[in-house]
Amino acid sequence: MKKELSELAAELDRHASSVTIRKGTALFHSGDVLSGVFVVRTGALTLSIDGPNTIYPPRTIGPGEIAGLPAALTGHYSLTAVVTEDSELGFIPGPKVTEMFELSPRLCMLAMRIMSDEIARVRTALKETPPMEDSQEQGTD
């Protein structure tokens, strides 16, 4: 999968404008409407679900990785992305990403494979997470 990710990131980055973002800046929040997709050139971002969540713990991404890719297909971000160290990013506006996918079925398939693997990873984590018990059923003294 690393080869597919680096190939897609490189192609997106060819069409990106460069932006420098300071540590602590939120690029987007879960539920926000798509503005665009980000390719990390230098620095790092943390992707997380808003609020505490042990099923999907925060994940840090770095150079050569992509933030906001699922939103390019759904129109809304599913995670929150925060810059964790000063970063240079490539930014591709949402309509440009859509146009790229429409013009290149191969790029679209790469994106779909990457997202399918992520969905499978989340499903595996959900299966491995023990069910939460209702505190009332546990009998507290």
Note down, in words, how this protein is organized.
It is a single chain. The chain is of the alpha+beta class. The chain has a single domain, classed as Jelly Rolls (Sandwich). It contains 4 helices and 6 strands, in the order H-E-E-E-E-E-H-E-H-H. The protein has helices at residues 2-14, 69-74, 94-103, 105-128, and strands at residues 17-21, 26-28, 36-48, 59-61, 66-67, 80-93. Strands 1, 2, 3, 4, 5 and 6 form a 6-stranded antiparallel beta sheet that branches. Helix 3 (94-103) packs across helix 4 (105-128).
CATH topology: Jelly Rolls
Mean pLDDT: 86
CATH hierarchy: architecture: Sandwich
**What is the CATH superfamily classification?**
Jelly Rolls
What would CATH call the class? Answer: Mainly Beta
Ranges with pLDDT <50 over ≥5 residues?
134-141
Query: Number of helical runs?
Result: 4
The backbone outline, from C-alpha atoms, is: globular
Radius of gyration, taken over Cα atoms and rounded to an integer in Å: 17 Å
Q: Give the topology string: H per helix, E per strand.
A: HEEEEEHEHH
Count all strands and give the number. 6
State the helicity in percent bands: 25-40%
What is the CA–CA distance across the termini?
50 Å
Helical/strand content category = alpha+beta
